[in-house]
Design a protein that fits this description.
Strand order of the largest sheet of chain A: 1-3-2
Largest sheet of chain A: 3 strands, antiparallel
Structural class of chain A: alpha+beta
Distance between the termini of chain A: 29 Å
CATH architecture of chain A: Orthogonal Bundle
Low-confidence stretches of chain A: none
Helix content of chain A: 55-70%
Number of strands of chain A: 3
Number of domains of chain A: 1
Oligomer: homodimer
CATH class of chain A: Mainly Alpha
Shape of chain A: elongated
Number of helices of chain A: 6
CATH topology of chain A: Arc Repressor Mutant, subunit A
Mean pLDDT of chain A: 91
Strand content of chain A: 5-15%
CATH superfamily of chain A: Winged helix-like DNA-binding domain superfamily/Winged helix DNA-binding domain
Order of helices and strands of chain A: HHHEHHEEH
Chain lengths: ~110, ~110
DNA sequence: GTAATATGCAACCTGGAGGTTGCATAGCAT
DNA sequence: ATGCTATGCAACCTCCAGGTTGCATATTAC
């Protein structure tokens, strides 16, 4: 197995938390806002939400823990910024899963046809 | 906005559960096994795990509820089979997120350089 | 200097996720 | 006919995710 491929499979433990972080509508919304490029403060991200500022803060910390966003304190506000790496990683993982399924289908097809 | 694109964004509510279903190591392992093509029974999928058959069953039902797998009863056993659609859907969603981020970077770059 | 703003921290509540055990039941093997 | 095998169902336990409220504190605005 190639080192890269081994890496992709071995890091399954580190990927589950990333999926889990995306497994919540509120957090998907936050990601959707932040991936547009504009770093935002907690108050800004709370605007328009039905949730408390504290609730939003907790969600942001969850995203931060897995690296999907990171925060920088600027004066009295902390600005959150999107970081594409973790999502890139699980995208590749999902590609691998799909590829494996396609291969399996091909093998089955070849077997039936021969 | 194109209908397809609107659809991708509007269906955010239906995607969070799919991410959540993948947000567990045990379930990622099950997906990894099943995407290889071979439909498997609960007992087969339990082999090698430290968990109970019932625990594995619950995980399989979680995956089934979001459509990542589906089961067919065959005699006394029920065989679980991988279904690629939900994963294909969230793959496209992640592609969209990444694309939006890249666009934002490009705009920023263009702005700085002009 | 003082008031308003943006966060952080902590305590607390509730529901559901993830596991287990025990028991019932339907198919298979012999 | 009978015993092993594969599941289903239900009750129960523990822990943590997701929310809230209240209060303290650091910045910024006037």
């Amino acid at each position: 197995m190639s080192p890269a491929s081994r890496n992709r499979i071995a890091r399954r433990q580190t990927r589950a938390p990333v999926f889990a972080a995306l497994g919540d509508e509120t957090r998907l919304l936050l990601v959707a806002k932040l991936c547009r490029g504009q770093p935002s403060s907690i108050s800004e991200l709370t605007e328009g939400s039905k949730l408390t500022r504290q609730a939003i803060t907790k969600h942001l910390r969850v995203l931060e823990r897995v690296g999907i966003v990171h925060s920088i304190r600027a004066g009295r506000e902390s600005r959150f910024k999107f970081n594409p790496e973790p999502i890139k990683d699980i995208r590749e993982y999902l590609d691998l899963v799909s590829a494996q399924w396609d291969e399996a289908l091909s093998r089955l097809k070849a077997f039936v046809e021969q």
